[in-house]
Amino acid sequence: MTTYTAPLKDFQFLINEFLPVGEYSDVEGFAEAMELATPLLDEAAKFTQEVLHPLNQVGDVEGLKYNPEDHSVTTPEGFKEAYRHYAEGGWSTITWPTEYGGQGLPEFLNMPMLEMVCSANLAFGLTPGLTHGAISALLLHANEELKQTYLPKMISGEWTGVMCLTEPQAGTDLGLVRTKATPNDDGSYAIEGGKIWISAGEHDMADNIIHLILARLPDAPEGTKGISLFVAPKFMVNDDGSLGERNQFHCGGLDHKMGIHASPTCVMNYDGAKAWLVGEPHKGLRAMFTMMNAARLYVGVQGLGIAEAAWQNALTYAEERLQGRALTGPKLKDKPADPITVHPDVRRMLWTMKAVTEGMRAMTMMTAFEMDLSHRHPDKARRQLADDFVQIMTPVVKSYQTDMGFELASTCMQVYGGNGFIEEYGIAQLMRDIRISMIYEGTNGVQAMDLVGRKLPAHMGRYLRSVCHPIDAFIAEEGQNHAMVEFTKPLEKYFGYLQKSSLWLAQNGLSNPNQAGAGAVEYQRLFALVMLGFIWAKQAKIALEKRDENPEFYDSKLATARFYFARILPQTAALILSITNGCETVMADGLEGVRG
Ligand SMILES: Cc1cc2nc3c(=O)[nH]c(=O)nc-3n(C[C@H](O)[C@H](O)[C@H](O)COP(=O)(O)OP(=O)(O)OC[C@H]3O[C@@H](n4cnc5c(N)ncnc54)[C@H](O)[C@@H]3O)c2cc1C
């Protein structure tokens, strides 16, 4: 079984020193967030360590039970109780508006909580995560009556929410959705059709489940322009807020999956389910996309959470496992062998895990912080700049962090050797659980297309400038600082790769879109690596200034930054070559070339 200790020191460092929260103390909710940060994070750590983490392996082994007679789904032992704790603890309320029962606190304070949940028990975290997405959709697009009906109980955690998009023939391409919505006489709609892979579509943890469903109206045009968004509760809600009769839909079965065994992935059948239109007719996909930044950022946090769990367990294991001797001679002469941490390859793996995980945490917090500014800053221009940053960073955070969640879980398995492959150690579960995050909420390939095809060209490169200007300014300013030259010089070089590859894609993608499509995933990785370079340089600057205050913490930050710059950031050199080598070999000879 794995262990888990919340990385509170790093959260505190990021909130108090890395993010410029102090510069924005007049932004609504920020001062309050700073006051609440310590007690909130401490309590979240306790809850995730003591309640959620002990259930992680139980959920994986026991899994879910589907009863075909009443179409019910029973979650593993302890999950219902844990969910009750989660709701009663107010953990679902942190960021939502006070008018619907939320605490109105910023996202940057919520992210550490989300990360802790994902590290401790990813399968559990999916249900509140999906509810978060459904709340955002209703908040942004529903009329006031629907908001009043659903939001207070979803925000309090009494009810959960789900997102019902996928159908067998409509995965990435939601223009192929066939589920129908026919108007009823009373202003509601009747939904007919089937959805697949609906996370938390049915379960026993909450009193009601609110389904957000993509469907077509009778007069809908073909494709993506004919999709509308509907809300349908599992139990009807009476005027006084009490629950009425069961709606006409049910779970037709559960899918057996590689991982997240405690998260119900449901086939859903809608047999004339009563539903209400959310937003305008035929604008359902647009409505979904406007809430996707937060949802995608949250999936990125899943990768981060698993990376943290992997890193912690790999380190503990490596310090205890005795095998072989250090290349330079025995370290523990009185023991039969040295700990495997003496071997350069094991050290390389451990440093990689630490550098990437802490870098991703800072990248998540930075993006969440800008998301808060994009909603809360009083100045319109600052809100716009923040939104530009969030727009371009969202696919990068989602894809890089989920890729690395899986990769670092695999690295952790490598540190464990054969024991990593044995289920009882819990590392195999980390790998199995996180793999899906590279696929759902838009596959990582589709994120890359979003980055290159939509976000780069948007407003003549304005989104990209929101990332490039701060890096440029940092290099210009810190380039004068002798102590920082070891970071600013290489950052300038690798940032140059980002600029060159952006230009190459823009120029070549225009005449041949396959050029952009073929290099998109490599570009997305390059983008993330350069961003982490910037982030590590910023952390190094703080560490250099403050090392006397807490040498153990800051020297570790500095050493990690140096490792990142020496061993990981240079990977960008290979990526720019792949990108600029173009699509010719990728698209050569049609499929025959691939088949050989
Ligand atoms: C465990 C689990 C939970 C899920 N939860 C939910 C949920 O709660 N609600 C929900 O609605 N759905 C859910 N899904 C569905 C999930 O969102 C889809 O699996 C995902 O959107 C990808 O669709 P697909 O599987 O049909 O793959 P496809 O769309 O068939 O894609 C196959 C491959 O082709 C690539 N590809 C496809 N189109 C393009 C393109 N235009 N450009 C470049 N590459 C492309 C993809 O990147 C991928 O590599 C879940 C799935 C699973 C397995």
How do the helices and strands line up, and which of them pair or pack?
Blueprint: H1 8-18, H2 30-52, H3 56-62, E1 65-67, E2 72-74, H4 79-88, H5 107-141, H6 144-155, E3 159-164, E4 180-183, E5 189-199, E6 208-215, E7 228-233, E8 235-237, E9 243-246, E10 249-254, E11 265-278, H7 284-290, H8 292-320, H9 344-376, H10 380-416, H11 418-421, H12 427-435, H13 444-455, H14 462-478, H15 485-511, H16 513-546, H17 551-568, H18 571-580, H19 584-587, H20 590-595
The structure holds flavin-adenine dinucleotide (FAD).
Total DSSP helices: 20
Chain oligomer state? single chain
What's the alpha carbon Rg, rounded to whole Å? 24 Å
| Cα shape | globular
> Could you please say which CATH topology of the largest domain applies here?
Butyryl-CoA Dehydrogenase, subunit A, domain 3
Tell me the total number of β-strands: 11
User: Please, how many domains?
Assistant: 4
* Superfamily (CATH H level) name of the largest domain: Butyryl-CoA Dehydrogenase, subunit A, domain 3
Task: Indicate the structural class.
Answer: alpha+beta
**Major sheet: size, sense and barrel closure?**
7 strands, mixed
Q: Which ions, cofactors or small ligands are bound in this entry?
A: flavin-adenine dinucleotide
CATH class of the largest domain: Mainly Alpha
